[in-house]
Amino acid sequence: QVQLVESGGDLVQPGGSLTLSCAASGFSFDTNGMSWVRQAPGKELEWVSGIDRDGVLVYYRESVKGRFTIFRDNAKNMVYLEMHSLNSEDTALYYCSTGIYGSSTRGQGTQVTVSA
Fold first, then answer.
1. Side-chain half-sphere of 2: how many Cα atoms within 13 Å?
2. Could you give phi then psi for residue 90, rounded to 5 degrees?
3. How far is Cα 81 from Cα 36, in angstroms, rounded to an integer?
4. Cβ atoms 24, 74 nearer than 8 A
5. Are 30 and 93 in contact, with CB atoms under 8 Å apart?
6. Can you list the positions of beta strands (E) in the chain?
7. N or C: where does the chain have the smaller number of CB atoms within 10 Å of the terminal CB?
8. Taking a C-beta distance cutoff of 8 angstroms, is the pair 2, 105 a contact?
9. How far is Cα 18 from Cα 68, in angstroms, rounded to an integer?
10. Which of these, 40, 39, 36, 30, lies nearest to 100 by C-alpha position?
11. Using the 8-state DSSP alphabet, how is residue 99 labeled?
12. Are 81 and 36 within 8 A, CB to CB?
C-alpha cells in the first residue's frame, strides 16, 4: 500500500531554515508528481509546492517563492522541501502528497513551528 513518511519538522526561530524529507513506498514513485501541502492551526489545508516526476518542473505558492525549494531523488524514493527565511505564517503541519498539486494521499505530517 502507498506509504508516505515525513520527517524533519522542528521548532525554529524566525528567519531560520529547515529541510523536510518524505520517504515514499508502495507505488511507482518515479512515474508520479509529488507535492507538499500544509495545514496551519485553525486553517484549511493548502498546497505549498509540487514537482513533476522527473524533478524538472517545480511549482510554488506565491508566499513561498524564493524561500522554499522542492526536489526529489527518484533513486531513493524521496522528496524534499528546503525552507529558508521561515516566518510565523509558515507554522503548520506539513504533509507530503502524491500528485503535483496534492491529493487525498498524504502521510502523517511533520510539524514546523516558527517562533522566537
1. 17
2. -90, -5
3. 8
4. no
5. no
6. 3-7, 11-12, 18-25, 34-39, 45-51, 58-60, 68-73, 78-83, 92-98, 110-114
7. N
8. yes
9. 10
10. 36
11. S
12. yes
Grid coordinates belonging to 108 = 502523517
Strand order in the sheet with 45-51: 11-12, 110-114, 92-98, 34-39, 45-51, 58-60
Instruction: Give residue-wise pLDDT tens across range 2-39.
Output: 999 999 999 999 999 999 999 999 999 999 999 999 99
Grid cell digits, residue 97: 502528497
Residue 16, C-beta contacts closer than 8 angstroms, at least 6 positions apart: 86, 114
